Amino acid sequence: MKTDIAKEPKKYRTRSVRFRLTAYFVIFALVLMAMLWFFQTVFLEQYYEMEMEKKIQTAVSSLSLQYAISGELDLEKYLQEMGEISSANDMYFYIEAEDESFNISSTDQASAGRYYYGRSGVDLARERLLANNGEPVTFKISNQTGDSITQVYGAKVDSEYRPSVRFFAFAPLTPMGPAVGILAKQLMIVTAVSLVVAFILALYISSRIAHPIHSITERAQEMAEGNYDVQFEGSSYREINNLAGTLNTTAKALSRTEQLQRDLMANVSHDLRTPITMVKSYAEMIRDISGDNEEKRNQHLGVIIEESDRLSYLVNDILTLSRIQAGVEIMEMAPVDLQKCAESVLATYRVLEEQEGFSIRLQTMEQPALVNADQHRMEQVLSNLISNAVRYSGERRDVEVAFLRRDRKWLRCEVRDKGIGIAPEDIDNIWNRYERASSRGARSKGGTGLGLSITKEILQRHGAKYGVESVLGEGSIFWFELPVID
Ligand code: ADP
Fold first, then answer.
1. Residue 451 CB less than 6 A away from ligand 1
2. 392 in contact with ligand 1, CB cutoff 6 A
3. For the whole prediction, is pTM greater than 0.85?
Protein backbone atom coordinates (compact mmCIF):
# COMPACT_ATOMS: atom_id res chain seq x y z
CA MET A 1 0.00 0.00 0.00
CA LYS A 2 1.22 3.44 -0.81
CA THR A 3 1.61 5.62 2.22
CA ASP A 4 2.03 9.35 2.17
CA ILE A 5 5.19 10.46 3.80
CA ALA A 6 4.46 13.76 5.45
CA LYS A 7 6.97 16.38 4.42
CA GLU A 8 8.95 17.52 7.42
CA PRO A 9 8.89 21.28 7.80
CA LYS A 10 12.30 22.87 7.46
CA LYS A 11 13.96 23.26 10.82
CA TYR A 12 15.62 26.55 11.66
CA ARG A 13 17.95 27.29 14.50
CA THR A 14 15.94 29.98 16.11
CA ARG A 15 17.17 32.89 18.14
CA SER A 16 15.22 35.89 19.27
CA VAL A 17 15.28 39.04 17.15
CA ARG A 18 16.83 40.82 20.10
CA PHE A 19 19.71 38.35 20.33
CA ARG A 20 20.38 38.32 16.58
CA LEU A 21 20.23 42.08 16.11
CA THR A 22 22.43 42.74 19.12
CA ALA A 23 24.97 40.20 17.91
CA TYR A 24 24.99 41.73 14.39
CA PHE A 25 25.35 45.27 15.70
CA VAL A 26 28.17 44.32 18.05
CA ILE A 27 29.99 42.38 15.33
CA PHE A 28 29.55 45.31 12.96
CA ALA A 29 30.96 47.77 15.50
CA LEU A 30 33.90 45.46 16.19
CA VAL A 31 34.71 45.00 12.51
CA LEU A 32 34.56 48.76 12.01
CA MET A 33 36.89 49.37 14.91
CA ALA A 34 39.28 46.64 13.80
CA MET A 35 39.45 48.22 10.34
CA LEU A 36 40.15 51.65 11.81
CA TRP A 37 42.78 50.17 14.07
CA PHE A 38 44.46 48.40 11.20
CA PHE A 39 44.58 51.48 8.98
CA GLN A 40 45.81 53.76 11.74
CA THR A 41 48.61 51.55 12.95
CA VAL A 42 49.76 49.94 9.72
CA PHE A 43 49.25 52.69 7.22
CA LEU A 44 49.76 55.80 9.30
CA GLU A 45 53.54 55.49 9.30
CA GLN A 46 53.74 54.76 5.56
CA TYR A 47 51.40 57.59 4.76
CA TYR A 48 53.39 60.02 6.91
CA GLU A 49 56.69 59.06 5.22
CA MET A 50 55.20 59.44 1.77
CA GLU A 51 53.95 62.88 2.67
CA MET A 52 57.37 63.91 4.04
CA GLU A 53 59.08 62.68 0.88
CA LYS A 54 56.73 64.76 -1.23
CA LYS A 55 57.30 67.80 0.98
CA ILE A 56 61.07 67.57 0.65
CA GLN A 57 60.88 67.18 -3.10
CA THR A 58 58.64 70.21 -3.42
CA ALA A 59 60.96 72.33 -1.29
CA VAL A 60 64.07 71.17 -3.12
CA SER A 61 62.61 71.62 -6.57
CA SER A 62 61.56 75.20 -5.76
CA LEU A 63 65.00 76.11 -4.44
CA SER A 64 66.98 74.26 -7.11
CA LEU A 65 64.88 75.75 -9.89
CA GLN A 66 65.72 79.23 -8.67
CA TYR A 67 69.41 78.31 -8.58
CA ALA A 68 69.30 76.85 -12.07
CA ILE A 69 67.36 79.42 -14.04
CA SER A 70 67.64 82.87 -12.44
CA GLY A 71 70.17 84.91 -14.33
CA GLU A 72 70.99 87.09 -11.34
CA LEU A 73 70.99 85.29 -8.00
CA ASP A 74 70.83 87.53 -4.94
CA LEU A 75 72.66 85.18 -2.57
CA GLU A 76 71.44 86.93 0.54
CA LYS A 77 67.83 86.71 -0.54
CA TYR A 78 68.30 83.16 -1.67
CA LEU A 79 69.75 82.15 1.69
CA GLN A 80 66.95 83.91 3.48
CA GLU A 81 64.33 82.04 1.50
CA MET A 82 66.15 78.78 2.09
CA GLY A 83 66.12 79.53 5.81
CA GLU A 84 62.39 80.28 5.74
CA ILE A 85 61.56 77.06 3.93
CA SER A 86 63.89 75.21 6.26
CA SER A 87 62.31 76.49 9.45
CA ALA A 88 58.76 76.25 8.12
CA ASN A 89 59.23 72.63 7.08
CA ASP A 90 61.59 71.44 9.74
CA MET A 91 64.34 70.76 7.18
CA TYR A 92 68.03 71.25 6.66
CA PHE A 93 69.51 72.09 3.25
CA TYR A 94 73.09 71.75 2.11
CA ILE A 95 74.33 72.88 -1.31
CA GLU A 96 77.83 72.26 -2.57
CA ALA A 97 79.47 73.12 -5.87
CA GLU A 98 80.67 70.16 -7.89
CA ASP A 99 83.99 71.86 -8.42
CA GLU A 100 84.16 72.37 -4.63
CA SER A 101 84.42 76.13 -5.12
CA PHE A 102 81.73 76.81 -2.48
CA ASN A 103 79.09 75.34 -0.23
CA ILE A 104 76.13 76.83 1.55
CA SER A 105 73.72 75.44 4.09
CA SER A 106 70.64 76.49 5.93
CA THR A 107 72.44 76.16 9.30
CA ASP A 108 73.45 79.77 8.89
CA GLN A 109 69.90 80.57 9.81
CA ALA A 110 69.46 80.66 13.55
CA SER A 111 66.23 78.66 13.58
CA ALA A 112 67.66 75.86 11.46
CA GLY A 113 70.71 75.36 13.62
CA ARG A 114 69.29 72.45 15.51
CA TYR A 115 68.78 70.42 12.35
CA TYR A 116 72.38 70.11 11.61
CA TYR A 117 73.25 66.57 10.63
CA GLY A 118 76.99 66.93 10.33
CA ARG A 119 79.19 66.08 7.48
CA SER A 120 78.57 62.39 7.85
CA GLY A 121 74.97 62.74 6.61
CA VAL A 122 76.11 64.89 3.68
CA ASP A 123 78.94 62.46 2.91
CA LEU A 124 76.55 59.56 2.78
CA ALA A 125 74.13 61.45 0.56
CA ARG A 126 76.94 62.51 -1.78
CA GLU A 127 78.15 58.94 -2.07
CA ARG A 128 74.69 57.74 -3.01
CA LEU A 129 74.17 60.56 -5.48
CA LEU A 130 77.49 59.86 -7.21
CA ALA A 131 76.75 56.16 -7.25
CA ASN A 132 73.42 56.97 -8.91
CA ASN A 133 75.18 58.99 -11.64
CA GLY A 134 73.71 62.27 -10.46
CA GLU A 135 70.11 61.03 -10.66
CA PRO A 136 68.08 62.18 -7.61
CA VAL A 137 68.25 59.88 -4.59
CA THR A 138 65.98 59.58 -1.59
CA PHE A 139 66.57 57.40 1.43
CA LYS A 140 66.39 57.26 5.19
CA ILE A 141 69.20 57.33 7.77
CA SER A 142 69.06 56.75 11.48
CA ASN A 143 71.41 57.66 14.30
CA GLN A 144 73.37 55.05 16.24
CA THR A 145 70.67 54.51 18.85
CA GLY A 146 68.08 54.17 16.12
CA ASP A 147 65.55 56.46 17.81
CA SER A 148 65.84 59.28 15.31
CA ILE A 149 65.25 58.78 11.62
CA THR A 150 65.95 61.30 8.91
CA GLN A 151 64.59 61.43 5.40
CA VAL A 152 67.33 62.42 2.94
CA TYR A 153 67.00 63.74 -0.57
CA GLY A 154 69.85 64.48 -2.95
CA ALA A 155 69.89 65.80 -6.51
CA LYS A 156 72.34 67.32 -8.97
CA VAL A 157 71.40 70.78 -10.26
CA ASP A 158 72.99 72.18 -13.44
CA SER A 159 72.81 75.84 -14.46
CA GLU A 160 74.09 77.74 -17.44
CA TYR A 161 74.81 80.79 -15.23
CA ARG A 162 76.85 79.24 -12.41
CA PRO A 163 78.62 76.03 -11.40
CA SER A 164 76.68 72.79 -11.10
CA VAL A 165 75.80 71.96 -7.52
CA ARG A 166 74.71 68.99 -5.46
CA PHE A 167 71.58 69.78 -3.51
CA PHE A 168 70.87 67.88 -0.31
CA ALA A 169 67.87 68.10 1.97
CA PHE A 170 67.35 66.43 5.35
CA ALA A 171 64.09 66.17 7.25
CA PRO A 172 63.69 64.46 10.61
CA LEU A 173 60.84 61.97 10.74
CA THR A 174 58.85 62.25 13.91
CA PRO A 175 58.57 58.77 15.40
CA MET A 176 54.98 57.56 15.02
CA GLY A 177 55.08 55.27 18.03
CA PRO A 178 53.77 57.76 20.61
CA ALA A 179 51.15 59.12 18.18
CA VAL A 180 49.96 55.62 17.41
CA GLY A 181 49.82 54.94 21.14
CA ILE A 182 47.58 57.95 21.69
CA LEU A 183 45.42 56.95 18.76
CA ALA A 184 45.17 53.42 20.15
CA LYS A 185 43.94 54.78 23.47
CA GLN A 186 41.41 56.98 21.73
CA LEU A 187 40.33 54.06 19.59
CA MET A 188 39.80 51.96 22.66
CA ILE A 189 37.50 54.61 24.10
CA VAL A 190 35.69 54.97 20.75
CA THR A 191 35.37 51.18 20.53
CA ALA A 192 33.92 50.94 24.01
CA VAL A 193 31.48 53.79 23.32
CA SER A 194 30.45 52.32 19.94
CA LEU A 195 29.87 48.94 21.50
CA VAL A 196 27.62 50.43 24.14
CA VAL A 197 25.78 52.54 21.52
CA ALA A 198 25.45 49.51 19.21
CA PHE A 199 24.12 47.46 22.08
CA ILE A 200 21.54 50.05 23.12
CA LEU A 201 20.52 50.70 19.50
CA ALA A 202 20.15 46.97 18.84
CA LEU A 203 18.01 46.53 21.94
CA TYR A 204 15.85 49.49 20.96
CA ILE A 205 15.35 48.42 17.33
CA SER A 206 14.83 44.76 18.19
CA SER A 207 12.23 45.57 20.80
CA ARG A 208 10.44 47.76 18.26
CA ILE A 209 10.37 44.81 15.85
CA ALA A 210 9.80 42.09 18.41
CA HIS A 211 6.99 43.78 20.32
CA PRO A 212 4.41 43.78 17.50
CA ILE A 213 5.43 40.23 16.54
CA HIS A 214 4.80 39.13 20.12
CA SER A 215 1.40 40.73 20.15
CA ILE A 216 0.56 39.20 16.75
CA THR A 217 1.61 35.78 18.11
CA GLU A 218 -0.65 36.21 21.13
CA ARG A 219 -3.58 37.18 18.90
CA ALA A 220 -2.86 34.22 16.61
CA GLN A 221 -3.00 31.94 19.62
CA GLU A 222 -6.39 33.38 20.51
CA MET A 223 -7.47 32.75 16.92
CA ALA A 224 -6.22 29.17 17.14
CA GLU A 225 -8.47 28.76 20.17
CA GLY A 226 -11.46 29.75 18.05
CA ASN A 227 -11.79 33.47 18.64
CA TYR A 228 -12.02 34.87 15.13
CA ASP A 229 -12.93 38.36 16.26
CA VAL A 230 -9.31 39.15 17.13
CA GLN A 231 -7.79 42.23 15.58
CA PHE A 232 -4.13 42.00 14.53
CA GLU A 233 -2.33 45.29 15.09
CA GLY A 234 0.29 46.40 12.58
CA SER A 235 3.33 48.54 13.29
CA SER A 236 5.46 51.10 11.50
CA TYR A 237 7.33 48.27 9.75
CA ARG A 238 5.70 47.50 6.41
CA GLU A 239 6.39 43.76 6.56
CA ILE A 240 4.75 43.43 9.98
CA ASN A 241 1.88 45.57 8.77
CA ASN A 242 1.39 43.26 5.79
CA LEU A 243 1.50 40.23 8.07
CA ALA A 244 -1.13 41.77 10.35
CA GLY A 245 -3.28 42.58 7.31
CA THR A 246 -3.01 39.03 5.99
CA LEU A 247 -3.87 37.58 9.37
CA ASN A 248 -6.88 39.87 9.69
CA THR A 249 -8.10 38.63 6.30
CA THR A 250 -7.44 35.04 7.38
CA ALA A 251 -9.40 35.57 10.59
CA LYS A 252 -12.31 36.94 8.58
CA ALA A 253 -12.15 34.02 6.13
CA LEU A 254 -12.02 31.50 8.96
CA SER A 255 -14.93 33.11 10.69
CA ARG A 256 -16.91 33.06 7.43
CA THR A 257 -16.03 29.41 6.89
CA GLU A 258 -17.16 28.57 10.39
CA GLN A 259 -20.40 30.44 9.83
CA LEU A 260 -20.91 28.60 6.54
CA GLN A 261 -20.25 25.30 8.21
CA ARG A 262 -22.76 26.09 10.92
CA ASP A 263 -25.34 27.15 8.32
CA LEU A 264 -24.62 24.01 6.33
CA MET A 265 -25.17 21.81 9.34
CA ALA A 266 -28.37 23.66 10.18
CA ASN A 267 -29.61 23.45 6.59
CA VAL A 268 -28.68 19.83 6.13
CA SER A 269 -30.32 18.79 9.36
CA HIS A 270 -33.38 20.86 8.52
CA ASP A 271 -33.62 19.40 5.04
CA LEU A 272 -33.13 15.90 6.35
CA ARG A 273 -35.54 16.36 9.18
CA THR A 274 -38.40 17.59 7.01
CA PRO A 275 -38.73 14.51 4.75
CA ILE A 276 -38.10 12.20 7.71
CA THR A 277 -40.91 13.86 9.64
CA MET A 278 -43.15 13.57 6.59
CA VAL A 279 -42.31 9.90 6.13
CA LYS A 280 -42.96 9.23 9.80
CA SER A 281 -46.25 11.11 9.98
CA TYR A 282 -47.61 9.58 6.77
CA ALA A 283 -46.58 6.10 7.95
CA GLU A 284 -48.42 6.78 11.22
CA MET A 285 -51.40 8.02 9.26
CA ILE A 286 -51.49 4.79 7.29
CA ARG A 287 -51.22 2.78 10.48
CA ASP A 288 -53.88 4.74 12.37
CA ILE A 289 -56.29 6.05 9.75
CA SER A 290 -55.93 5.12 6.11
CA GLY A 291 -54.75 1.52 6.48
CA ASP A 292 -58.06 0.13 5.24
CA ASN A 293 -58.85 2.82 2.73
CA GLU A 294 -56.96 1.81 -0.37
CA GLU A 295 -57.22 5.12 -2.16
CA LYS A 296 -56.04 7.17 0.80
CA ARG A 297 -53.40 4.62 1.68
CA ASN A 298 -51.96 4.79 -1.83
CA GLN A 299 -52.02 8.54 -1.72
CA HIS A 300 -50.14 8.55 1.60
CA LEU A 301 -47.73 5.90 0.37
CA GLY A 302 -47.11 8.16 -2.65
CA VAL A 303 -46.05 10.96 -0.32
CA ILE A 304 -43.77 8.60 1.57
CA ILE A 305 -42.13 7.47 -1.68
CA GLU A 306 -41.77 11.06 -2.86
CA GLU A 307 -40.17 12.15 0.41
CA SER A 308 -37.82 9.14 0.41
CA ASP A 309 -36.75 10.11 -3.11
CA ARG A 310 -36.13 13.63 -1.95
CA LEU A 311 -34.03 12.28 0.93
CA SER A 312 -31.97 10.16 -1.37
CA TYR A 313 -31.43 13.05 -3.83
CA LEU A 314 -30.33 15.25 -0.98
CA VAL A 315 -27.90 12.71 0.42
CA ASN A 316 -26.53 12.05 -3.08
CA ASP A 317 -26.07 15.75 -3.74
CA ILE A 318 -24.32 16.35 -0.43
CA LEU A 319 -22.05 13.42 -1.16
CA THR A 320 -21.28 14.55 -4.71
CA LEU A 321 -20.57 18.09 -3.63
CA SER A 322 -18.25 17.13 -0.82
CA ARG A 323 -16.45 14.60 -3.02
CA ILE A 324 -15.89 17.17 -5.76
CA GLN A 325 -14.88 19.84 -3.29
CA ALA A 326 -12.48 17.52 -1.50
CA GLY A 327 -10.92 16.69 -4.85
CA VAL A 328 -11.66 12.97 -4.45
CA GLU A 329 -13.83 12.98 -7.53
CA ILE A 330 -11.57 12.56 -10.54
CA MET A 331 -12.79 14.14 -13.76
CA GLU A 332 -12.39 11.68 -16.60
CA MET A 333 -11.61 14.00 -19.43
CA ALA A 334 -12.31 12.94 -23.00
CA PRO A 335 -13.66 14.57 -26.18
CA VAL A 336 -17.40 14.98 -25.64
CA ASP A 337 -20.22 16.13 -27.92
CA LEU A 338 -22.25 18.26 -25.52
CA GLN A 339 -25.12 18.65 -28.00
CA LYS A 340 -25.67 14.88 -27.90
CA CYS A 341 -25.53 14.98 -24.09
CA ALA A 342 -28.16 17.72 -24.05
CA GLU A 343 -30.37 15.64 -26.38
CA SER A 344 -30.26 12.65 -24.06
CA VAL A 345 -30.89 14.78 -20.95
CA LEU A 346 -33.81 16.52 -22.62
CA ALA A 347 -35.32 13.18 -23.64
CA THR A 348 -36.24 12.58 -19.98
CA TYR A 349 -38.17 15.86 -19.94
CA ARG A 350 -40.12 15.24 -23.15
CA VAL A 351 -42.91 13.72 -21.12
CA LEU A 352 -43.55 17.18 -19.61
CA GLU A 353 -44.40 18.51 -23.06
CA GLU A 354 -47.25 16.06 -23.42
CA GLN A 355 -48.43 16.00 -19.84
CA GLU A 356 -47.93 19.55 -18.57
CA GLY A 357 -47.87 21.69 -21.69
CA PHE A 358 -44.19 22.58 -21.57
CA SER A 359 -42.36 23.78 -24.63
CA ILE A 360 -38.83 22.40 -24.45
CA ARG A 361 -36.56 23.14 -27.42
CA LEU A 362 -32.99 22.30 -28.32
CA GLN A 363 -31.17 24.60 -30.69
CA THR A 364 -28.02 22.93 -31.96
CA MET A 365 -25.30 23.90 -34.40
CA GLU A 366 -24.95 22.12 -37.68
CA GLN A 367 -21.34 21.22 -37.12
CA PRO A 368 -20.77 19.27 -33.94
CA ALA A 369 -18.13 20.77 -31.68
CA LEU A 370 -16.19 18.58 -29.30
CA VAL A 371 -14.94 19.73 -25.94
CA ASN A 372 -12.62 18.08 -23.47
CA ALA A 373 -14.78 17.10 -20.53
CA ASP A 374 -16.08 14.40 -18.22
CA GLN A 375 -19.27 13.34 -20.03
CA HIS A 376 -21.07 12.06 -16.98
CA ARG A 377 -20.40 15.24 -15.00
CA MET A 378 -21.36 17.51 -17.90
CA GLU A 379 -24.65 15.61 -18.19
CA GLN A 380 -25.15 16.38 -14.52
CA VAL A 381 -24.51 20.09 -15.19
CA LEU A 382 -26.99 20.14 -18.08
CA SER A 383 -29.50 18.19 -16.05
CA ASN A 384 -29.19 20.60 -13.08
CA LEU A 385 -29.60 23.66 -15.29
CA ILE A 386 -32.50 22.17 -17.27
CA SER A 387 -34.33 20.94 -14.17
CA ASN A 388 -33.94 24.42 -12.62
CA ALA A 389 -35.26 26.02 -15.82
CA VAL A 390 -38.26 23.67 -15.72
CA ARG A 391 -38.86 24.17 -12.00
CA TYR A 392 -38.61 27.93 -12.12
CA SER A 393 -40.26 28.38 -15.54
CA GLY A 394 -43.41 29.82 -14.07
CA GLU A 395 -46.64 30.02 -16.05
CA ARG A 396 -44.99 30.31 -19.48
CA ARG A 397 -43.44 26.84 -19.32
CA ASP A 398 -40.93 27.67 -21.99
CA VAL A 399 -37.43 26.19 -21.85
CA GLU A 400 -34.75 26.36 -24.50
CA VAL A 401 -31.28 24.87 -24.63
CA ALA A 402 -29.07 26.52 -27.23
CA PHE A 403 -25.54 25.79 -28.41
CA LEU A 404 -23.46 28.36 -30.25
CA ARG A 405 -19.87 29.07 -31.09
CA ARG A 406 -18.28 32.21 -29.66
CA ASP A 407 -15.09 33.68 -31.10
CA ARG A 408 -14.62 30.35 -32.93
CA LYS A 409 -12.75 29.08 -29.90
CA TRP A 410 -15.55 28.63 -27.40
CA LEU A 411 -18.57 26.38 -27.32
CA ARG A 412 -21.30 28.24 -25.49
CA CYS A 413 -24.32 26.53 -24.01
CA GLU A 414 -27.30 28.55 -22.84
CA VAL A 415 -30.24 27.22 -20.85
CA ARG A 416 -33.03 29.79 -21.15
CA ASP A 417 -36.37 30.03 -19.45
CA LYS A 418 -39.10 32.63 -19.35
CA GLY A 419 -39.90 31.98 -15.75
CA ILE A 420 -39.74 33.78 -12.45
CA GLY A 421 -36.21 35.18 -12.87
CA ILE A 422 -33.81 36.09 -10.09
CA ALA A 423 -33.64 39.34 -8.16
CA PRO A 424 -30.37 41.25 -8.63
CA GLU A 425 -29.58 41.01 -4.90
CA ASP A 426 -29.80 37.20 -5.03
CA ILE A 427 -27.91 36.63 -8.24
CA ASP A 428 -24.43 36.42 -6.69
CA ASN A 429 -25.50 33.98 -4.03
CA ILE A 430 -27.39 31.34 -5.93
CA TRP A 431 -24.16 29.46 -6.72
CA ASN A 432 -23.45 28.94 -3.03
CA ARG A 433 -24.69 25.78 -1.36
CA TYR A 434 -28.05 26.09 0.30
CA GLU A 435 -28.43 29.62 -0.97
CA ARG A 436 -31.81 29.99 -2.52
CA ALA A 437 -33.34 33.06 -3.98
CA SER A 438 -35.07 32.85 -0.68
CA SER A 439 -38.66 33.25 0.37
CA ARG A 440 -40.01 31.72 -2.79
CA GLY A 441 -40.49 28.29 -1.30
CA ALA A 442 -37.85 26.37 -3.18
CA ARG A 443 -38.71 23.28 -1.24
CA SER A 444 -42.12 23.15 -2.78
CA LYS A 445 -40.36 23.04 -6.15
CA GLY A 446 -38.43 19.97 -5.12
CA GLY A 447 -34.86 21.24 -5.15
CA THR A 448 -32.12 20.26 -2.75
CA GLY A 449 -30.46 23.69 -2.76
CA LEU A 450 -27.21 22.12 -3.90
CA GLY A 451 -27.72 21.86 -7.65
CA LEU A 452 -26.02 25.11 -8.64
CA SER A 453 -23.11 24.65 -6.23
CA ILE A 454 -22.48 21.22 -7.72
CA THR A 455 -22.77 22.77 -11.20
CA LYS A 456 -20.30 25.48 -10.23
CA GLU A 457 -17.77 23.00 -8.82
CA ILE A 458 -17.94 20.80 -11.92
CA LEU A 459 -17.59 23.77 -14.28
CA GLN A 460 -14.69 25.14 -12.29
CA ARG A 461 -12.94 21.78 -12.37
CA HIS A 462 -13.32 21.91 -16.15
CA GLY A 463 -11.88 25.40 -16.34
CA ALA A 464 -15.14 26.62 -17.88
CA LYS A 465 -16.52 30.13 -17.87
CA TYR A 466 -20.04 30.34 -16.54
CA GLY A 467 -22.67 32.81 -15.46
CA VAL A 468 -26.27 33.85 -15.40
CA GLU A 469 -28.28 36.70 -16.82
CA SER A 470 -31.70 37.16 -15.35
CA VAL A 471 -34.54 39.63 -15.02
CA LEU A 472 -37.00 39.15 -12.20
CA GLY A 473 -40.35 38.08 -13.59
CA GLU A 474 -39.04 37.67 -17.14
CA GLY A 475 -36.73 34.70 -17.04
CA SER A 476 -33.13 33.61 -16.81
CA ILE A 477 -30.30 32.48 -19.06
CA PHE A 478 -27.76 30.21 -17.40
CA TRP A 479 -24.68 29.79 -19.60
CA PHE A 480 -21.28 28.16 -19.66
CA GLU A 481 -18.43 28.05 -22.15
CA LEU A 482 -15.75 25.45 -22.81
CA PRO A 483 -12.89 25.64 -25.29
CA VAL A 484 -13.53 23.67 -28.47
CA ILE A 485 -11.03 20.98 -29.48
CA ASP A 486 -9.77 21.75 -33.00
P1 ADP B 1 -32.53 24.43 -5.73
O2 ADP B 1 -32.54 23.00 -5.45
O3 ADP B 1 -33.08 25.26 -4.64
O4 ADP B 1 -33.04 24.77 -7.08
P5 ADP B 1 -30.06 25.25 -6.90
O6 ADP B 1 -28.67 25.29 -6.35
O7 ADP B 1 -30.26 24.48 -8.13
O8 ADP B 1 -30.98 24.80 -5.74
O9 ADP B 1 -30.48 26.74 -7.17
C10 ADP B 1 -30.29 27.70 -6.18
C11 ADP B 1 -31.35 28.79 -6.27
O12 ADP B 1 -31.16 29.56 -7.45
C13 ADP B 1 -32.73 28.28 -6.38
O14 ADP B 1 -33.29 28.03 -5.11
C15 ADP B 1 -33.48 29.40 -7.09
O16 ADP B 1 -33.86 30.37 -6.15
C17 ADP B 1 -32.41 29.99 -7.98
N18 ADP B 1 -32.52 29.51 -9.35
C19 ADP B 1 -31.83 28.52 -9.94
N20 ADP B 1 -32.15 28.38 -11.24
C21 ADP B 1 -33.12 29.31 -11.49
C22 ADP B 1 -33.92 29.67 -12.64
N23 ADP B 1 -33.75 29.05 -13.82
N24 ADP B 1 -34.78 30.68 -12.51
C25 ADP B 1 -34.94 31.32 -11.34
N26 ADP B 1 -34.24 31.02 -10.22
C27 ADP B 1 -33.35 30.03 -10.29
1. yes
2. yes
3. no
